[in-house]
Amino acid sequence: MSRVIAALAVAGICLSAGASLADDMPELCDRGLEAAQIGAIHLAIENYTRCLNEETLTKDQKETVLNNRAVFYQMTNQAENALADRDQIVALFPGRAESFFIRGQLRATEMGDRPGAIADFDRALEIDPAYTEALVARGVAYENLGQQGLALQNFDRALTIAPKRGDALNYKADILRDQGQLTEALQLYGAVPESDPFRAEAYAGAGVIYRSQARWPLALVAFTRAIDIQKGKGSPSAGFHLLQRGDTYLAMQDYAKALADYSESLRLLPQVPWSLQRRAEVYEKMGQGDRALADLRQAQARFRSDPDVTNDLGDLLCRRGDMAAARAEWAKAESYLNTPVLAGRIHRQRQEMLKRTGFYSGPIDGDFGSGSQAAETAWANAGCPAS
């Protein structure tokens, strides 16, 4: 029920006792709201649909019902139906920037249609050039398409209009960090809390830089602040920042604290394999190979088709001297990737690990995915990747 209330609050839908969708809303439409109040989402959708089909509504009333139903469609993983409702809202109010923006967000976040999202954000900005939310969202879409230059243009334009906008500062800092402009990125991360003090991502972004510079105390402070913010919100995203702090402890060789963070991360984020993978790495470094193997076996059982988990298991078995079992796991990892092109990714990872640890001096070519026997023999003779 709390998820329902939170989603509706974001959408601006009131669930207070006696609330009505709009003044003089037909009773059938109000039944949708009543169903939502008790968490009966599918019944709410059914009532809204009947309302739209059977009642005569004003434009404003129709928009309200369509908006509510779209939210419920999203909550029940019916993105296409939600998009159809958003299309109707845009048709009702083609001059309203917000309608295009909300549809663009649906395309970007629920459907992965970033070009379509950008088109919607473009339209919103044609209507309202100072719509900073649309500028930031368009920048994120461009960044996710790998177009960092266009992303930065949008973040900069948003910051020209609203210089203290925390999300724009944060996203720009992320790109500058990735480009190696660490001083500039740190300055931007440091400016975020003035307007957005509970934006955990800004602290975590600074922590990543501090960790890369081996500035351990500053990294730990930054990650701890991010963890505390997310825990204060009751968000499982704290698990991601626990992973980051655990990685810092691992780099410091403080294995006990790394284990504690990875274990807590696993509790908060059981749906991803990374905590088990990292914890296995720590156990192996502590000489507890059986526990490392148990964690990777558990990760593989939970995430059967994850090539990275299976590849890690193969690497560990190799280091334990069981080459036959290692080869079997590596073969599985490649099969999960389905194509020679993608399978080459696993081989490149192995080559890179071996090159860093001195076991391999050949080119990083990724051609092993073609199934070349000579390449496979070269790999087998190279040694096992270091943990």
Give the percentage of residues in beta strands: under 5%
Order of helices and strands: HHHHHHHHHHHHHHHHHHHHH
- What sort of overall outline do the alpha carbons produce when their principal axes are compared? globular
Q: Specify the helix fraction band.
A: over 70%
Which radius of gyration do the C-alpha atoms yield?
Answer: 25 Å
> How large is the count of helical segments?
21
Which stretches are poorly predicted, pLDDT < 50 over at least 5 residues?
A: 1-22, 353-362, 366-381
Mean pLDDT value: 85
- Structural class assignment: mainly alpha
Report how far apart the termini are.
44 Å
Largest sheet: none
Number of beta strands: 0
Outline the structure in words.
The chain has 387 residues and is mainly alpha-helical. Helix content is 74%, strand content 0%. The chain has helices at 2-11, 27-37, 41-54, 59-75, 79-92, 97-110, 114-127, 132-144, 148-161, 166-178, 182-195, 200-212, 216-232, 238-251, 255-268, 274-285, 289-302, 307-319, 323-336, 340-356, 373-382. Helix 7 packs antiparallel against helix 8 (132-144) and helix 12 runs antiparallel to helix 13. It is globular and about 75 Å long. Mean pLDDT is 85; it is low at 1-22, 353-362 and 366-381.
